[in-house]
Amino acid sequence: MEKFLQREKEADYYTAHISGYVSPQGQIFISDPLSLWLKRVLDVILSVLALIFLLSWLFPIIAVGVKLSSKGPVLFKQRRHGKNNCIFYCYKFRTMRMNEFADVMQASKTDARVTSVGRFLRKNSLDELPQLINVLKNEMSLVGPRPHAVPMNEIFSKEIDNYAFRHSVKPGITGLAQAKGYRGEVEQFYDIYGRVKLDLFYIKNWCVWLDVKIVFWTIQSLLFLRNKAY
Hints:
Elements: E1 13-14, E2 21-22, E3 28-29, H1 33-69, E4 75-81, E5 87-93, H2 116-123, H3 131-136, E6 141-143, H4 150-159, E7 172-174, H5 176-179, H6 189-205, H7 208-224
Parallel strand pairs: 6-7
Antiparallel strand pairs: 1-2, 2-3, 4-5
């Protein structure tokens, strides 16, 4: 990846000694046990309902399309950073032909690795549906900062101060950044810096109602801001 990023300073600090995340001013974020319990309950209930009523019939259809489009497994799993920088395998429907650069090279608009079926899945974000399994495994939440591949995190964290603060919460299938149109390839500094700023805003201002609004905004984004989905 080209070195197009630059450093920006904004101090926040994480401590493992309390059940929350603290700013230099002493503010604690996402630390109320009842709110966290409610978030988890909603994650589980909505994920189970989606798996039963959506993925139960959609999975076989997508699986057949993926298998017919190219050789390889139906599901693609990639090492990504989760809460507290713990690495987990993030699941997606495979959208590319098998290649050795999947973890280190982002998909571009004219990427020859992406299959015709994969391009449709990516355009409509259907490739992300298997992450409902990650939610049930308590590795992800329905809403939170989007997890990036480990090699990408290593690059971004060197260029953006406080980047790892986004790992102080569970990553999400969708997030505030994605709901506001930040999707697709990171081509310039603002593409990633804008996402990080919105991720930090989410962490500092989280509430259940904000999650509900982000889901609504995500649906709007999928319908009307599709130019960066590829």
